[in-house]
Amino acid sequence: MQDAEIIAVGSEMLTSQRIDTNSLYIADQLNALGVEVRRKLIVGDDRPLLTDAIRSALEHAGLVILTGGLGPTEDDVTRQAVADALDRKLIFSQEICDGIEERFRRRQRKMAEINKRQAYVVEGAEVLPNPNGTAPAQWIEHQGRVVIMLPGPPGELKPLFAKECVPRLMKLLPAQVIRARFYRVTGLTESDLDALIAPVYTKYTNPSTTILASPGDIQIHLRARCGSAEDAERLLAEVGGPIEELLGRHLFSLNGDPLEAIVGTLLRERGATLSVAESCTGGMVGERITAIAGSSDYFVGGFVTYTDRLKIDLLGVDSELIAQHSAVSKEVARAMAEGARNRTGSTFAISITGEAGPESSTGAPVGTIFVGFAGPDGSPEALRFAMPGDRPRIRGFATQAALDLLRRRLLKLD
Amino acid sequence: MQDAEIIAVGSEMLTSQRIDTNSLYIADQLNALGVEVRRKLIVGDDRPLLTDAIRSALEHAGLVILTGGLGPTEDDVTRQAVADALDRKLIFSQEICDGIEERFRRRQRKMAEINKRQAYVVEGAEVLPNPNGTAPAQWIEHQGRVVIMLPGPPGELKPLFAKECVPRLMKLLPAQVIRARFYRVTGLTESDLDALIAPVYTKYTNPSTTILASPGDIQIHLRARCGSAEDAERLLAEVGGPIEELLGRHLFSLNGDPLEAIVGTLLRERGATLSVAESCTGGMVGERITAIAGSSDYFVGGFVTYTDRLKIDLLGVDSELIAQHSAVSKEVARAMAEGARNRTGSTFAISITGEAGPESSTGAPVGTIFVGFAGPDGSPEALRFAMPGDRPRIRGFATQAALDLLRRRLLKLD
Fold first, then answer.
1. Chain A, 364-403: which have a CB under 8 Å from a chain B CB?
2. pLDDT-derived band at A8, boundaries 50, 70, 90
3. Are A215 and A389 in contact (CB under 8 A)?
4. Cα–Cα distance measured from residue B283 to residue B306, given in angstroms and rounded to the nearest whole number
5. What is the band of A195 on the pLDDT scale with cuts at 50, 70, 90?
6. Does A241 touch chain B (CB under 8 A)?
7. Of the candidates B71, B38, B73, B36, which has an alpha carbon nearest to the alpha carbon of residue B149?
8. Contact across the interface for A313 and B282, Cβ inside 8 Å
9. How far is CA A72 from CA A69, A116, B62, B365, in A?
10. What is the pLDDT of residue A17?
């Protein structure tokens, strides 16, 4: 049970179009339980090949986790392959079938006949309910080993694994306590960040340190594994304390929350409201802010002013300002933030204008981004950035920079 | 040789920190040659486990490609595992060793003793030169099968594979042509879609059919493999033709382009412009439209009106309308689209208002979405949807529904 193998099922993951990301999540969760993933396999929708793979996995690992292939179509072969590999029968479950029918009924739809395929259970399996989809997971204990079948969509797999599988696995595994810290950082490159904190974390193997970078957002995971919670927390403080100090104002999250959640909390605490004015990001800032449930407490709305005309008409940016400085300028970023704040009556406003490429339409080099801020105190301000990468990367960086400017102003940092 | 298995070697790819991306490149290259990847495996730096994996791969596939594990350290076990699996010796090559030394010398560095490990060759292997690194690739023909060992760094692997492996593989493979169609569909569930088109595609194994579903967007890949391009195209037409007819207005893309690109092309062709008014999606529609480079040709911008107040102030929605029908209503969706069109002067406008959850703040059930449309002809209109799933899923569906309503109106469908 200390060794696991993950088998992702689906021909689409054998092309370049779809990556198996579920296994990254599962590997993290298993590592946190002290279980090592020894192999990951991706198999197409091919019953004999999958059956072989399951048999081989059971020879090498005490825990075999299958993801995907539980859908309603002929292509979905996981149930059958597991039954074949374990030499067990598939049994129709009226209860699961009723659940699927009920799910369709709630959406005023009729269950297709084909969905009945999802109601088959491997003989002796425990059925783990899936509140977010039609295919339940299945948990099978077999000759001292455990086989788990999980649905492929990440939105179904993750909550199911966390709620149903982790507690069951913990019961089977030796008692160990794992405590973690999950930092998020912006405004540093990955190599600068590593140069800064490596002198601290490389001295320890426990807690383990993992660094993950995406545009404008670096995650640092510290994970301590000890016999008691006190020991784990003590180790985390010993390593985390100096890291927090070194990162300073670049550290925006101590609990893994994304930046849009952090600024949301800061706005709510202050009873303040926010509006946005976006040009090259086209709505990305608003999209992220409203991805947080309850954002209507502080977010009023905003403007997507993709053309100069709309910057003038909707935000009241002076056309002279655009003529003189171009739309991609500090002056226009400031005026956009101020305009959004005036027109919506929000406490604060942030703005983005820039050149996301692939070609420059304004003369400014691709990657030039101005991020603006307006609030009740002082004049509106704007920062200039030269962002690396392609269009999606530049837009991602710009969004992060705007949210971070807001965070720092709310915290009166800098 | 028509079937391949890819084995990526490296413990780092069993954590969440590093994804195996080499295999995506290799899969693409192999597919273009008519070779199907049947399994992808990721194995840690574990010699017995890797040896087993290679033996098992040789039972299933005519071509086994290993990536990584060719470095100079103890951890690098690929050479040894391949030799073990094929029951061959490892032989020291003075020529490779000299090449590595020369490489170090050119950079004014001395070769470490440890690098000599990289000069070992599996008995009988052909050495493929690696101009970008110290470890050469190796090509081994074994009982009618081919085993290729490639270095892990993508900057070494890709040029090496393209220059050395592709031509060798072409000589061994029958002349074959692959042609594909890539459909995208919205407004159907995966099971309804499958019930509709399975009677057509299940009659054929060539072309192969793969169906991939994400919220409001189902992809169908048809891939034909034939001796000539004409035969492949004829087969695709034979299967694709009836599928296109059955899918009708639900089929939005014939070339794999996303919906935002499809509506962008339609708007550009018509010399028309677009604006948006978003409530619960918070900017997601604008974000998707502006993700397309060149969208400034037709997209002017829009409004994120998260509060009732802003729906009234920015879009001119009648406050009586909101009081009477609530903000989540057909009437308000229509008025939002009309308001966006009036205030921006765009040819067309689309709008979204709804209840994305997790709790209802308006009394409407979570998942209730209204999508509005306004254009130069006829009155503004709106459609009601009951979207399944959680907040991100509902917002994704809503965005897709709004873009699809626009597409259908531009094409005068329904």
1. 391-392, 395
2. very high
3. yes
4. 10
5. confident
6. no
7. B71
8. no
9. 9, 7, 32, 28
10. 65
Q: Using CA atoms, how far apart are residues B13 and A24, in angstroms rounded to an integer?
A: 9
Distance spanning both ends of chain A, measured CA to CA: 50
Residues B333-346: what's their mean pLDDT? 98
> Under 8 Å CB-to-CB from B1, ≥6 apart: which residues?
B35, B62, B63, B145, B146, B169, B172, B173
B205 touching A (Cβ < 8 Å): no
CB neighbours (10 Å) of residue B170?
Answer: 11
Of the candidates B83, B69, B70, the one whose C-alpha atom is nearest the C-alpha of residue B12 is: B69
Kindly tell me if the per-residue pLDDT of A132 is higher than 70: yes
Identify the three-state secondary structure at position B334.
Answer: helix
Domains of chain B with CATH codes: 3-172 (3.40.980.10), 177-253 (3.30.70.2860), 259-410 (3.90.950.20)
User: CA–CA separation, B216 vs B165, rounded Å?
Assistant: 40
pLDDT tens figures, B206-258: 898 888 778 899 989 898 888 888 999 999 999 999 999 999 999 999 999 99
Residues of B (17-76) whose Cβ lies below 8 Å from A: 17, 19, 24-25, 27-28, 31, 36-44, 46, 49, 52-53, 56, 60
The values of phi and psi at residue B38, to 5°, are -95, -30
Could you tell me if the ipTM is greater than 0.85? no
All residues of chain B having their beta carbon less than 8 Å from the beta carbon of residue A46 are 38
Residue A178 burial class via C-beta count within 10 angstroms: exposed 0-12, middle 13-18, buried 19 and up: middle
End-to-end CA gap in chain B: 49
How sure is the predictor about B76, in pLDDT bands with cuts at 50, 70 and 90? confident
pLDDT at A299 over 70: yes
Residue with tokens 């940016």: A317
Give every CB contact of residue A114 below 8 A, 6+ residues apart in sequence.
A72, A73, B191, B194, B195
